Amino acid sequence: MKNSYYEYFDLLTAGGASPESSILIIYTGGTIGMDTNADGALVPLDFERILEKLPELRRFRYRLRLIAPFLPLDSSNVGIAEWLILSEVIASHYHEFDAFVVLHGTDTMAYTASALSFLLDGLQKPVIFTGSQIPIGFTRTDARENFISALEIAASQTNGQATVPEVCICFSSVLLRANRSSKVATSNFTAFASENYPPLARIGIQLDFNYSHILKRHQTIFKAHKNLDNRVTIMKFYPSMMPDLVKARLQNQTLRGVVLESYGSGNLPTSPWLQDAISEAAARGVVFLNISQCMGGAVAQGKYEASTMLNELGVVSGHDMTTEAAITKLMFVLGQTTDSKEAKQLLRTSLCGELSL
User: Fold this and answer.
1) How many CA atoms, within 13 angstroms, populate the side-chain half-sphere of residue 207?
2) pLDDT tens digits, residue range 270-308?
3) What residues contact 248, with CB distance under 8 A and at least 6 apart?
């Protein structure tokens, strides 16, 4: 697979022949990898010059290798094809490196990181996503702090084992579980939040890990899954939606799954036309997953009359999942099974800490 890489090289650090940790850095693109050219225009950074921008890296006693598995992309253009490439890169180097740091644009970072959390089954090593709001070539960039913190967290061990053996997002002053995270800001450094789950670490003068909330895994065999199904959609509800628009989407014969972004604790209009549209799609095997439009709190399906009918229609409650986790989990689950009953059971199960039960 090495020949398929866009580029790869080792960074010379103080690790020498006896590094404290080995980390594979995977560069996908995004703001963190931008610099200015002679005319002052933003252009992708030649990452072979990263030590010029971050001379602090030389002080680490880590073995660092950087791989760009494809030409740098704006994260708006990153999707299933790139998620599977990232999964394959990690799988092919899983036994060679202690940890992985993924440099990614912020706009879809939570989607990519959530997808990786499902694809990397039995993960026992850190996969830390990070990026920046300001390009690495700018004086006031947040790239430096985010990147260095991500490396330190990736290298951290407790009792000889990885401290955070899961997929995470490291940004600003917090480390968040990837599939609990959402981008919430475009104009300040605290770009990501996890409303329904505490940070796994706070980054200050020292790294303060929240050990009780880090994912506990039984020893399992690591496996990188290779199937995701994009025949899904998200339907965000709003007052007085046009019935014909909803029906047209649900009548699409290729559709296999729908994330319903409902009001409050899981409520939808009780209109007969909507119930009929959901019922007809469900009868064809379409799987429905109900999450709340609210960032904080959870779906309590059946608590109010406006959500009771969803239970009757076989809609799965997504409890407190984020939109990013819900859609990527639905893609993942439908990529593993064609049986709607089995898919619903997997959606109700917390596969890697994405929902509270």
Assistant:
1) 21
2) 999 999 999 999 999 999 999 999 999 999 998 888 788
3) none
**Averaged pLDDT for residues 147-155:** 96
User: Within the chain, which residue ranges are assigned CATH 3.40.50.40?
Assistant: 232-348
HSE (side-chain half, CA atoms, 13 Å) at 296:
3
Residue whose tokens read 């599939």 = 179
The CATH fold of domain 2-224: Rossmann fold (3.40.50)
Instruction: Verify whether residue 31 is a known catalytic residue.
Output: yes
- Per DSSP bridges, beta strands 42-44 and 34-36 are antiparallel
Type of residue numbered 37: N
Q: Which residues contact 166 (CB under 8 A, 6 or more apart)?
A: 117, 123, 126, 127, 177, 178, 200, 214, 215, 217, 352, 353
Handedness of CA 161, 165, 171, 172 (dihedral sign): negative
pLDDT digit string (tens) for 247-279? Answer: 999 999 999 999 999 999 999 999 999 999 999
Report how far residue 28's alpha carbon sits from residue 22's, in angstroms, rounded to the nearest whole number.
20
C-alpha span between 303 and 199 (Å, rounded):
29
Identify the pLDDT of residue 72. Answer: 87
| pLDDT score recorded for residue 10 | 85
Rounded Cα–Cα distance for residues 129 and 30 (Å): 12
To which residue do tokens 């319903």 refer?
260
Give CA–CA dist 86/334, Å, rounded. Answer: 20
Q: E strands, 131-263, where?
A: 157-158, 161-162, 167-171, 174-177, 182-183, 192-193, 201-203, 207-209, 223-224, 232-236, 257-262
In whole angstroms, give the CA distance from residue 278 to residue 284: 10
Which residue is it, tokens 């296999």?
Answer: 256
Query: From the candidates 28, 31, 106, 108, which is the catalytic residue?
Result: 31
Please count the other Cβ atoms lying within 10 Å of the Cβ belonging to residue 29.
22
Within the chain, which residue ranges are assigned CATH 3.40.50.1170? 2-224
pLDDT in tens, 182-223: 999 998 999 999 999 999 999 999 999 999 999 987 778 999
- In this predicted structure, what is the pLDDT of residue 1? 42
Level-2 CATH architecture, domain 232-348 = 3-Layer(aba) Sandwich (3.40)
